[in-house]
Amino acid sequence: MVNIGVLALQGSFREHLYMLSRIEGVNPCEVKTIADLKKVSGLILPGGESTTIGKLLRDFEFIEPLIQRITTGMPVWGTCAGMILLAKEIVDEEYCHLGLMDIAVRRNAYGSQLDSFNTAMIIPRVSNEEVPLVFIRAPWVERAGANVDIVATLNDRIIAVQQENMLATSFHPELTQDLSFHKYFARMIMDKGNSI
To answer: Where's the active site on this chain (predicted)?
Structure first.
């Protein structure tokens, strides 16, 4: 069994835990403390309020231990707010949170809650079947560094990227019944032999 954590401070962490529970060989774990972080082989940063999650990471002195785990190879996947947390640059903002992924993201790029939408597309790296995509106050990637793989685009906007052990998506796979992205992330962890 591989322990996959979900940062459980705020946001849609319960939905991610449920999705992980449906994958054979995966033990989903809530990560609320630095001790919890040490027990997992990979971590999901869920959707939610990026500003709130970033503040909680600072308040709980999570930033440095999290950066250390990711920079030494622990796979991490940020969905929506999680993408913003990972980015080196937030467009029109003077700050960033973890500052690890060589991307510039625009917060709420698709508009307000009222502008939320669903679509579906084939993302060859992840699945040969159409994957449902749920966008809620979603960011998009405005710039990606040369070392960042663009995994998916929608209407010429970058919505999924991977940089070595870091994966980020604008959308919310945890709000669908489709396991494609969660299985892909589990494979990233298992392929690295990242088991505790």
So the answer is: 80, 172, 174
Determine the Cα angle at 179 with ends 73 and 183, to 5°. 30
136 is in an annotated binding site: yes
Average pLDDT of the segment spanning 153-177: 95
Answer for the pair 175, 15: CB distance below 8 angstroms, yes or no.
yes
Indicate the pLDDT class of residue 48, thresholds 50, 70 and 90.
confident
Is residue 196 in some structural domain? no
- Report if residue 102 sits inside a domain: yes
Instruction: Find the Cα–Cα–Cα–Cα dihedral 117, 92, 168, 178, rounded to 10°.
Output: -10
Question: How many independent structural domains does the chain possess?
Answer: 1
Q: CB 165: neighbour CB atoms within 10 A?
A: 20
Instruction: Check the annotation: does 107 bind a ligand.
Output: yes
Average pLDDT, the chain: 91
Q: Annotated binding residue at 58?
A: no
- Residue for token pair 């999650």: 53
* Domain ranges, residue 71: 2-191
CATH code of the domain in which 32 resides:
3.40.50.880
94 is in an annotated binding site: no
